[in-house]
Amino acid sequence: MKNILCLLAVLFLYTAASSQNSLNGTITSKNLNQPVSATIYIPQLEKGTVADFDGNYQLNNIPDGNYNVIFSSLGFATVSKKIAFSKDKSIIENIEMDESAVEMEEVIVSTPFHKLQSENIMKVERISTKDLSSSGAVTLADGIKNIAGVDIISTGTGIGKPVIRGLSSNRVLTYTQGVRLENQQFGDEHGLGVNDSGIESVEVIKGPASLLYGSDALGGVLYLNPEKFAISGETHGDLNSSYFSNTLGSSTNIGIKTSGEKLKFLARGSYSSFSDYDTGADYRVTNSRFNEKDLKTGLQYLGSKFKSTLRYNYNRSNIGIPEEIGEQTRSKDLELPFQEIDNHILSFDNTIFLNKSTLDIKLGYLFNDRREFEEEADTAALRMKLSTFNYDVKYNLPQLGRFETIIGLQGMFQNNKNTGEEILIPNANTTDVGLLATSHYHLEKLDLQAGIRFDARKIESDAARNPSDEDYIPQLNKTFTSFTAALGAKMDLFKNLSVRVNMASGFRAPNLAELTSNGIHEGTNRYERGNQNLTNEQNFQTDISLEYRNKHIEFFANGFYNAVNDYIFISPTNEVIAETQVYDYLQDNAKLYGGEFGFHLHPHPLDWLHLESSFETVTGQLSNDAYLPLIPANSLRNTFRVELDDGKTRKSSTAFITLENTFDQKNVSNFETNTGGYSLLSAGIESSFKLQKAMFTIGINGTNLTDKKYVSHLSRFKPEGIFNIGRSINVNLKVEI
What is the pLDDT of residue 12? Predict the structure, then answer.
């Protein structure tokens, strides 16, 4: 590893003269032959520019290699072209763009070949954090549940854990800054620990992604794309502030970024504070308050031989732990008990350009310091320190005919240490290593992709407590291995109709809590007893996606069947220890099936009008036909949206009304109760104005406008009958320079 770091340091300092390529041309509309001020972007280089008012553009300092170049503009269909650069050439590429009312396509980063969604073999959902904020989302986790097939297990408004097609916790892997996020995510009351400021968009892979990411991606991946650097030669700053009436909360962030031809820099800081949320039933949920500080910064160098990006994120979250409905207050000062969590994420992403191939090296260091204060505000009863080092090395082989191939090595070294009086999981070391190979084959109307991977995970833990104690945790030394594979195809059946078929296997090694727990977990109010005999969860999922698109209507239908062998779940027993019911970790085969269906209508000539509708359903059962716990209820979401653009002063305006219908959830596990259905109404309006060099964006939106009193099936407050959040009117202001 030292040799790799030394090599990267030498490459970073190397600035000797070498070949420099450029790309230039003119962009026009195909029908009217008028210039288009489009954005030109090369994802692999994170480099781009904007065409001028005459449609002319020029992009310099392009290293040798074959790159996808993306041409995009609002109101036009996105164009993706593969262009080869070599030998100090100046390439002229004139582009004609088709007018389209469909939203601009973006490049999907979470899959290996960085293609547009329409070209991608895997169906990946993508949504910008700007859209999440405009919909009234309080946190990043709160926003992602707007994506079809995605929900959250919530603990009030401060904690949310992603659920993808019924799978959650360690079965869903989160990536941020290009590295896997590790923050003791096994706990029900442990949230994402990532603030939405400085996050540009969210991508969701729904289904096994172990081929790409290894263990813990059995159910899917939540991929957080960081904020892009500024275009070369530009400097920008912005201020964003939001107010939420329900929690009397506010969130403010400020950012700046500047870029030269080779060196780029950005920084963003934010602070959020919320009081107890109001249920709309004449009470607030005591100690559901929380606050958060966040700092993100990045530095990038792009030369002719390599690109290096260094990013750092610090997050401090203080989150109250509600226990009962008590004193009604609007205070934002935390009460006991509460969590105090520090997350440090340092990532170093490097690409070495080797003429017709590239070598990608990503290194990550994460430190999570989780403290829980129960009786004293200055002494943590529970304190866990988790240090994680990640590495991800991928070699993109030279393209051979229509074949693109990637081989890779991924791994992780992790140490968990307890320094508090209470112990949930013992001190332990975890070591991961994985080898993968995947290939993409492209034809005019057919794309194929296949891959195979081998993983090994070793877990070594110390003994905890006295051997004579009832809650003694013995030493553990186990290794888990697995082969996984994936095969997918995308075919254009007709001009506007395409179908995707994907078959993939995934796996998840048992986590420390499932293997070693032996004691009361205060956050869940149960005595949890682990099982050292647990084996890998192994699954196989078949996924079929049908998509129809023309200029004025889009339709999609996704169906999946997911068979999970040795599914790990926690189950109550008749035993009681320390006046607390005992829960054991067990295994059984399980199956999950369902899908998402929807359409998007934007009729001609009313291209500014949009009608969107989506329905999602999932069912989860064990082999004995008993239902799995924490499976989201079926839901139907309808949105009416208006978008107006191209004013002289007013650059754009949007308005929406959304009605979300959640149906009864009667398919519940043995220790769950049924949940009644409910309907939530939300609406909002937003406008952007250009005054000299400043862009002002003002928006107001409301969630749960009817102040509906309801309980989500995935709320951890459900057993106590505590309602979810009531009506909230939210105001957003953004200033960009």
Answer: 43
Structural domains of the chain, ranges and CATH numbers in brackets: 20-100 (2.60.40.1120), 210-736 (2.40.170.20)
DSSP 3-state of 233? coil
Three-class HEC string of 542-564 = EEEEEEEECCCEEEEEEEEEEEE
Q: What is the pLDDT of residues 102-127, one digit of tens each?
A: 666 788 888 888 788 878 898 888 98
Task: Please write the tens of the pLDDT for every residue from 706-727.
Answer: 999 999 999 999 989 999 999 9
Gyration radius of the chain over CA positions: 26
- Angstrom distance (rounded) from CA 391 to CA 409: 8
Q: CB-hemisphere CA count at 13 Å for 728?
A: 27
Phi, psi of 581 (to 5 degrees): -65, 140
Looking at the predicted structure, is the pLDDT value of residue 559 above 70?
yes
Per the CB < 8 A criterion, the answer to whether 714 and 632 are in contact is: yes
704/723 Cα distance (integer angstroms): 13
User: Is the four-CA dihedral 712, 716, 719, 725 of positive or negative sign?
Assistant: negative
Which of 61-70, 183-192, 272-281, 347-356 has the lowest average pLDDT? 183-192
Are the C-beta atoms of residues 69 and 48 closer than 8 Å to each other? no
d(CA 408, CA 488): 19
CA angle 11–15–20, rounded 5-degree value: 110
